[in-house]
Automatic annotation (TrEMBL), chain B:
Belongs to the ABC-3 integral membrane protein family. The keyword Membrane applies. This is Metal ABC transporter permease. Coiled coil: none annotated.
């Protein structure tokens, strides 16, 4: 479906919704923006932002969960991150978003660091996140409120519809099944991209999905016009990516 | 004289009128503060603020500044001071307990140093709804406007923040500033409410409506509206009952609010089956 030479991407219309009608997702997404709006709304991310990690070390207390990771991901590249349980994948993703506190080394997204609060705000707009374990939530949140938090509620809602959870958006998240919740998070990521995110950091986004859902999600994520870093144990998802990395005991190596 | 006649008679008295207005104003602002308290899981905040306020009074007495003003300022500062601890959900609740112990110790120390009687200081803290002064009504009125206004203005940010701080942070919510604002608001409101109504009534006005609403509403907006509705209803009926049968308003209001909270908890929860019925109704049972 997607032919790839590093740096050059030719995208054929993707069939990623279950009902079977073809939809060219990316074209719809990009043409929905007003030309003048792009500059103000998006962190300048058409086609994705480059990701650069230098000697990144993340600690949990005294445990170095991530130990000296170097990584360069070109803009628009899709990278699968695999590896054993507890090897530090989630921690690494959270470090990029600034959710993990004890981080050393350098992390650049789109060439930008994260020294000031403004830079963090930009980083979080630039990176859409699909958490591995969505929070139980201390207070109820409705699914459509989660979708709207992406910055482009309209696109997120229509993505939810295509993912088969459009009818659930008025329900509190706590009443959704694991897979339904994961679909809502996928739809939210689509909204983030529509709102200008140039990187998607997806942490096992298909772990709770049924077989058809895994296909849909893999097709959806790899079809987004962004840089994709996806933690996955799913071979089909890894096969759709340009690169496959493996993490072991906090270290990263290229496997394909 | 019938209860109704007695209510009519009493309502002509100025202090009773003020108390009624005060309760209505309190019912609009304080239950929303209660929603924040439940949402941030900081139930011990009332005890913490009581003692921080006491410390403020002690400092005020020592320095010769208006002690009540000092108490409010001390509470606001304490609220802002614990805000950085809100990064993990469990930290805040523990911080409130710690704050309480430290404040008691500091207050007793300052009171001893200034030679002020501790009971006298507590009396300043302990108001009664029938002794509400016009200046107190101003405080209540400000809360009644400011708190719901914040909830309307920032409803999306607040819903995200109270659900999950990390998700809120990733969605561009200024979580740190918003948490600090909420904590300052809670601290001042609780301290102000203790002063206005006595410590017992604070629960009836803040926590109990919020706890009942937490069971009845399915979203932050719904919970907030339920809390305000329950607050107004409980305050109005409780106050009228107290007037009509010559009862002390504080305990009556607490019992009324407690009864509503109990009923809300006994109501069957809207379970998965009713969601399924809703889905089937709105989508003709389309498979998902
Ligand atoms: N909150 C925490 N406190 C202490 N240690 C933690 C915490 N979270 C993770 N760890 C530890 O850090 C290491 C890396 O965890 P991480 O969640 O990044 O692994 P992972 O590669 O995502 O694993 P999985 O495939 O199971 O999701 C593990 O050894 C884990 O036990
Ligand atoms: Mg993980």
């Amino acid at each position: 479906m997607v032919a790839l030479v590093p740096g050059v991407r030719i995208r054929v219309a993707g069939r990623w919704n279950r009902t079977g009608d073809r939809s060219d997702y990316c074209r719809v997404e990009l043409s929905s923006k007003q030309p003048g709006q792009v500059a103000t709304r998006s962190p300048d991310s058409e086609g994705g932002l480059a990701l650069r990690l230098r000697d990144v070390v993340c600690r949990h207390g005294r445990l170095a969960a991530v130990g000296g990771v170097d990584l360069d991901v070109a803009a628009g590249q899709r990278v699968a991150l695999t590896g054993t349980n507890g090897s530090g994948k989630t921690t690494l993703l959270r470090a990029v978003l600034g959710l993990h506190r004890q981080v050393d080394g350098e992390i650049l997204v789109g060439g930008r660091g994260s020294r000031s609060a403004a830079e963090w705000a930009w980083r979080r707009r630039a990176c859409a996140w699909i958490p591995q374990r969505p929070a139980a939530g201390r207070f109820p949140l409705l699914a459509h409120e989660l979708l709207r938090s992406s910055g482009d509620g309209g696109q997120a809602l229509s993505a939810a519809e295509r993912l088969g959870v459009g009818a659930l958006v008025d329900r509190p998240l706590s009443s959704l099944s694991g897979g339904q919740l994961q679909r809502v998070h996928l739809a939210r990521a689509v909204g983030c991209v529509a709102a200008g995110a140039g990187v998607v950091l997806a942490d096992e986004p298909t772990a709770a999905l049924d077989f058809a859902g895994q296909e849909e999600a893999a097709e959806l994520l790899t079809g987004l016009p962004v840089t994709l870093l996806v933690v996955t144990h799913d071979r089909a998802m890894a096969a759709r990516c340009d690169r496959v990395l493996e993490m072991a005991a906090g270290r990263l190596r290229e496997v394909g | 004289m019938s209860a109704l006649d007695q209510i009519g008679e009493l309502l002509r008295l100025v202090p009773v009128q003020r108390a009624g207005i005060g309760l209505v104003l309190a019912a609009l602002g304080l239950p929303v503060v209660g929603v924040v308290i439940v949402g941030l899981d900081i139930m011990p905040v009332r005890f913490a603020m009581m003692h921080v306020a006491l410390l403020g009074i002690a400092v005020g007495e020592l320095l010769g500044v208006d002690p009540v003003l000092c108490a409010l300022l001390a509470c606001a500062a304490a609220g802002a001071g614990v805000a950085p601890l809100a990064r993990t959900p469990e930290a805040l609740s523990g911080a409130m307990g710690l704050l309480m112990s430290l404040a008691i110790a500091a207050a007793l120390l300052v009171l001893a140093l200034s030679g002020v009687n501790a009971n006298g200081a507590f009396a300043l803290l302990w108001g009664s709804i029938l002794a509400v002064r016009p200046s107190d009504l101003v405080v209540l009125g400000t809360l009644a406007v400011a708190v719901p206004a914040l909830f309307v203005w920032r409803r999306r940010d607040l819903a995200l923040l109270l659900h999950d701080r990390e998700l809120a942070v990733c969605s561009g919510v200024p979580a740190q500033r918003l948490t600090m604002l909420l904590l300052v608001l809670v601290a001042v409101a609780v301290a102000g409410a203790i002063r206005l109504t006595g410590a017992l009534l604070v629960d009836a006005l803040t926590l109990l409506p919020a706890l009942a609403a937490r069971r009845l509403g399915r979203s932050l907006g719904a919970i907030t509206l339920w809390a305000m509705g329950i607050g107004v209803l409980v305050n109005a009926t409780g106050f009228l009952i107290a007037l009509g049968w010559d009862l002390p308003p504080g305990p009556v209001l607490v019992l009324a609010a407690g009864a509503v909270a109990l009923v809300a908890h006994l109501l069957p929860e809207r379970g998965a089956s009713s969601w399924r019925v809703l889905d089937a109704a709105s989508h003709g049972g389309a498979p998902h």
